[in-house]
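Backbone geometry tokens:
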Amino acid sequence: GWSPGSVKLWSMAASGTTAWVRRFETPLRAFLRTETAGAAVLVAAGVAALLWANTDASSYEDLWLTELSITIGDEGVALTLREWVNAGLMTFFFFVLGLEARREFDLGELRDRRRLALPMLAAIGGMALAVAIYLALNLGGPTAHGWGVAMSTDTALALGLLALAGRRTPDRLRAFILTVVVVDDLLALVIIGTAYTEELDVIPLLWAFAFYGAMLAARAVGVRRGPAYFLLGVAAWVALLESGVEPVVVGLAMGLLVWAAPVPRAELERAADHFRRFREQPTPELERSARESLRTAIAPNERLLALWHPWTSYAIVPLFAFANAGIAIDGELLERAVGSHVTLGIFFGYVVGKPLGITGASLLVTWLSRGRLRPPVGWAAVLGTGTIAGVG
């Protein structure tokens, strides 16, 4: 006989789905759910920094201006604690961001490469209009040189705000926003890192490219050992730091390098075989081989996301806020801010430039392509994307 449950299973099978599909969230939803809780910790860290700075500003600054050096022989890196957080730990945040973007590129909404072009151009449009608004309010004065501060998106806050919007947000919209902020960050890092570098040292920059090339070569020949990539990444980071370019771009570049495609079936069968042998004869040698085979049976992207995403959401990004949000606010500061062209340029660049730039660029691309390239969501959602991009 046919029970209601079996009828439901049959109907779902006929429609190409299974009974358990809807119970599981996509990796992108899980990623952004972590960002929701991380956003709460981020806000708490920012509030704590403001309270400390407005209670005892000198002790706050003294802490973050403390110098920490790591030396090997006669060579080393010496940075303040704030610089270690901003340029060092935040590299891991951008690494996680690159991992998630690569996952969407390999398995998610961006598998169709045509969907990649429009958010890329939309991000450029948002950056360009934000910079144009800042320059319109500051051109001709010494503050015009600060245009770079109005161009980049605060990715941590943007993803947190997106997650707070609710779990019903379509995956296509989430992927669109993720692509916009990744492209925005990557371009901003490259532009700001070069335009605001007072002295660019070419030799270390070439070494950084060489180390990244070594990573590409290692990936091409199938090297899967994490320590090798970690050492090459550290070397590239130090080289970029010495060159004068913002080194956090190394994290994003390395994250984009890690493939998310499922491992071959042979790997899964080998892992099952090793586990079966260990179950029949539980020895230390078989335990090690079973553990290693199980580890390699998981896509590197998935494994690294599970490892690093909680650390970046709950520790690194809040620490970044705690190290940078401590601004001593008084009447004099507020009075100067209200009449400052810098303040107005940044404010209108974010609040007006980002939404209109992203939406306008999307409309222009859709019109020029005669509808072949169009947003995967409605125009109100595109405008919402621009608003989220201006949350900083």
